[in-house]
Amino acid sequence: MSGHAARLAVLAAGVALGAGAAACGAMGADDSDGGQDAATGDAGGCYVVVAFQPTAPVAPATVVAHGDVVGAQGVVTYTWVVRKAGVDVPVTALDPDGRDIQFDAATAGVYDVELHVGGPCLPFAGGLNVTAPGANTRAVRLRMVPPGSIDAPPQERIVIVPGGADFAAGVLVLDAGNLYPIAARAAGAPVSAYLRFTSRATPDAVVEAFTGAGGDTAVRLVPGRYDVLVVPTSSALAPRLITDWDPLTGQLALAAGTALAGTVLDAGGAPVVGARVSLTSGGVPSTVATTAVDGSFTVRWREGGAVEALAVIPPAGSALPRLDADVELGGRAAITVRHAAVATSELGGTAVRVGGVAAAAADVLVDVGVAGAGTVRDGATLLATARGSQRRVLRTDGAGALPAARLIDGPAAIFVAGPGPGATAAVTLPPAGAIDAAAPVMVTGRVLRAAGGARGDARLRATLTGPLAHAGAPAPTAVAGADGRFVLVLAAGGSYAVTIADPTADDAALATSVVGASTRDLGDLTLAPAIAVTGEVRASGQSVGARAVGLAALCHLDCTGIERSRPLGEAVTDAAGRFTVAVPDPGVTP
Amino acid sequence: MRRVLALGSLVALAVGGAGCFYGDAINERPSAEIQRLDAGVPARGGQLSFRAITDDPDDDAVTYGWRFETCNGAGICAASETGVDPVFTVSIPVRVEDAPTVQVVVTLDVADEWGAVARPTQRLVLDVVNNLPDLTVQRRGRELGGAFPPDVPIVVSARGTDRDGDAVTLAWELFPPRGSVPADRRFEPLPDPPGGGEERLLLPDVEGSWRVRVTASDGVDVRVVDLPILVVPARPPCLGALDPAPPPPGAALLLDQPRRFAVLVVEDDLDVFPAPPPDDPYLGVTGFRWYVRGPGAAGFAHVDTDVAAFELDPAQFDPGDLVDVRVEIDDRVGRAVQCAADAATCSFAQDGCLQRLTWTVEVR
After folding, report:
1. Beta-carbon separation of A471 and B323 below 8 A
2. How many of the other CB atoms lie within 10 Å of CB of B21?
3. Cβ contact B279–A570 (<8 Å)
4. Which residue of chain A comes nearest to B280, CA vs CA?
5. Domain segments of chain B as ranges
């Protein structure tokens, strides 16, 4: 990438968070198109204005810059500086006093333009984007999370990044928003609740808050309309999703919602005491009810979708499985959830071995599931059959044997934690004998740069996916050698998401997967090229940059789920509020 | 006056016609003295201004003759300037015969239009002082709050200039604090500083108050600047922006879909996040430790990952479960967290700079 050295220099500045003066002058506020239009440097009534022609140049181009000063007195001297990647670009004056100039933008990228006029006027400084011919574009969300010293909610801006060259995003204004007083009430009574505000404009930038016992709080939000999920602490009130809510109203009205009564029975028809019952409708959860001594429960909910997801969690220590069912509950007043007679087996004493060696004092995750583990009925009407599952972590003894534990019979995925990546096994419970997991395997490959050649020092990380993914699972890592070659030691048979990152940010991170890990060579893995997106973050009302703002570049149109929160690149603003973040290059179409 | 004399002469003539004496009037010489217009001790290269204060008893017009001589330490003097105006302004040359100017002599002759000269000739001898060389000493490095961490390079730059145009030489001295070992510290010149002057690289080996003394000499006088360099233990890193923000004590965020708990910024004197470029001369990357406490678990389980974010999937838990996700950060020092395991937050210095934060989530 042409701006590599400059980017690293700015990146270094970006991490040096000492106090310092901000840069003078900049592009216009929130100029997310890179400030192609006229922009100003302002010093108390003295305005330096620069306009470019063409406004959106495509390389190669001859760019004319028109300078002007408003509010200056006397003869003004125009001094221009144009640089690209820190190298001076020759300029040609178009009039005797040098007010207007032109320069050749031979290649695509960011041209840093300064206009100094002397006197009390601060100089203009800004970056002009010259795009590559045939540049593809990609929408990128820039999420800004301010430090505690800045009163502003987290927020996002969508930037359209052209490919083929570095890009200046201009000034991004961190909207301070307003501190809205909010009252959660149910029939006039205060409600203690969890609140999640999802902006309808930028739904990924959520703000979470809580009301106390008095039902009141104050939440700082960017003005706009929100979808608000309210989850009361009380189980007598149904959570509610309030759509298209205006924070100016300040009121969050709650109610008991719809009551769904029911009973949880075991396979013999005996009540199950202490089971947790909940459902989700249209993404909105219900209350969580706990069954009484007679197995009865009442959850409160609001219908938000056609089909509800019902979950019944057995009490701790029970041999019963968890039941999950997709069921239409709209209009139902009462249901009966009954466990089916599912065979179970005692696993106590079962030996666990990894590579033939007893896994002593190891945590063993057992994830077993079976269909038809229960039913959901409304009276005599069968509404749904439920899937049954159990997910337990059992610790082996010194000889590698499992402790006493009764689990349902069925296909199970096993993960044995231990030194290194751990081990996996796929077994059917009850096991015929010992549970044998293969020893870790070595997955090799070579990382190549986008521009060709080995990418030494690339960082690889593998994360378990699938049924065995769990909090606490080890994430094997590796560092590529100078020849780009790496060795990842993975749990045999495990499925992993593998990310490969270039520590220099020359290239973009690469995501790949390994399914059913076995000793193998992944071959050459070529990183995608990256471009640098630069800009400046300012708090609203400030003409200087905001420091220590966390900034993540995130995918926008081409991703869903948790991918939307995995950054393409990360940065922090420096003392002048500037940032540089590397994102995958959208490329060009010849 | 002339009219008075003429009238006197007529009277005398009249009297003489009657047998009286008469004769020419006598011209008196003017008097003069030198008044210095500026204050302070004259310095080489500086300016001096004088005014002639004269008085002619006859009210005759007077003329001025200024002479300005400069002398070096060997007593060799040279005429420098002359002047004919009432006010005489001169510049003091920095050298006389290639030696520093140490004295100036100003003489003033005043005469009236009849040629009468003020006596004695006014002569003013002034000693001239040397301008001390100017000396700028600066430090650069991983400085935070006026202090530097140990074992991180510090560049000390010095530039000496002299208003008199004398060549300036620099001499460097290092005063390390107690406990510093010569073999373990570095203090060495750097070649060809781009901004001119001289530069030294200091690599302090111990904490304490270091002092770099730079002495600039112009061959006549010296100027000494002591640059203090405070080296303090590496500071604990501070958690900055987080996404999401942790809930207040006793509250729980909702986990109804896979979520990412991320540290976006860590501020530190040495080890920061986002990571600096690999070739940064000072900085390294923060170390992260993640822990999870599942429902019903007595303690936190360490997660084998050292990245800045941790993902949690509600599918791994049951509705109603409370799960704690904890992050702790550290720099290259490798400190042990002293806070109780149950403490949601921890600050080594109790100064609001946090090294531990905990998100509590409720699964739905």
Report:
1. yes
2. 7
3. no
4. A12
5. 28-127, 134-231, 238-363
pLDDT tens digits for range A542-588: 889 999 999 999 999 989 999 999 999 999 999 999 999 999 999 99
Tell me what pLDDT residue A571 has. Answer: 95
Rounded to whole angstroms, how far apart are CA atoms B234 and B334? 11
Q: Which CATH class is domain A441-530?
A: mainly beta
User: Between β-strands B47-55 and A109-116, what pairing exists: parallel, antiparallel or unpaired?
Assistant: unpaired
A154 and chain B in contact, CB less than 8 A = yes
Please tell me the CATH code under which domain A178-254 is placed: 2.60.40
Which one of B144, B274, B320 has the shortest CB-CB distance to A313?
B320
- The CATH classification number of B238-363 equals 2.60.40
| Chain A, nearest residue to B301 by Cα | A472
pLDDT in tens, A211-255: 999 999 999 999 999 999 999 999 999 999 999 999 999 999 999
Nearest 10 degrees: Cα torsion B328, A208, A214, B352: 30
Q: Please give the single-letter amino acid code of residue B337.
A: V
Q: Residue A415 forms beta bridges with which residues? A: A365, A424
pLDDT of residue B76: 94
Q: Tell me the shortest Cα–Cα distance from A332 to chain B, in angstroms.
A: 21
Q: Could you give the CA distance from residue A299 to residue A281 in angstroms, rounded to a whole number?
A: 12
What class is the B134-231 domain? Answer: mainly beta
User: What fold does the segment set B28-127 form as a domain?
Assistant: Immunoglobulin-like (2.60.40)
What is residue B19's predicted lDDT score, i.e. its pLDDT?
Answer: 55
Residue A143: list chain B partners with CB under 8 A: 243
Q: Which residue of A has its CA nearest to B325?
A: A471
Contacts of B75 (CB under 8 A, 6+ apart): none
Which residues in chain A show pLDDT less than 70?
A: 1-44
> Any idea how long chain B is?
364
Average pLDDT, chain B: 90
Indicate yes or no: CB of B240 within 8 angstroms of CB of A146: no
Q: Which two tokens stand for residue B274?
A: 């986002």
Per-residue burial over B262-285, b if 16 or more Cβ lie within 10 Å, else e, is bbbbbbbbbbbbbbbbeebebbeb
Measure in Å the smallest separation between the Cα of A571 and chain B Cα atoms. Answer: 6
Q: Determine whether the interchain pair A562/B279 forms a contact, defined as Cβ–Cβ distance below 8 Å.
A: no
d(Cα B193, Cα B158) in Å, to the nearest integer?
A: 10
Q: Do A12 and B280 touch (CB under 8 A)?
A: yes
Contact B274, B153 (CB under 8 A): no
Q: Does B16 score more than 60 pLDDT?
A: no
Interface of B with A in 250-289 (CB under 8 A): 251-254, 256-260, 262, 264-265, 267, 272-280, 283
Measured between beta carbons, the chain A residues lying within 8 angstroms of B254 are 194, 196, 208, 229, 231, 285
- pTM for the model stands at 0.82
- Cβ–Cβ below 8 Å for B243 and A472: no
Closest Cα to residue B30, out of B4, B2, B6, B54? B54
Query: Does residue B173 have a pLDDT over 80?
Result: yes
Q: Decide: helix, strand or coil at residue A502.
A: coil
Q: Which CATH architecture has domain A344-437?
A: Sandwich (2.60)
B126 C-beta neighbours (distance < 10 Å), count: 14
> Which of A15, A150, A231 to probe the B interface (max B CBs under 10 A)?
A15
Structure tokens at B116: 């009468």
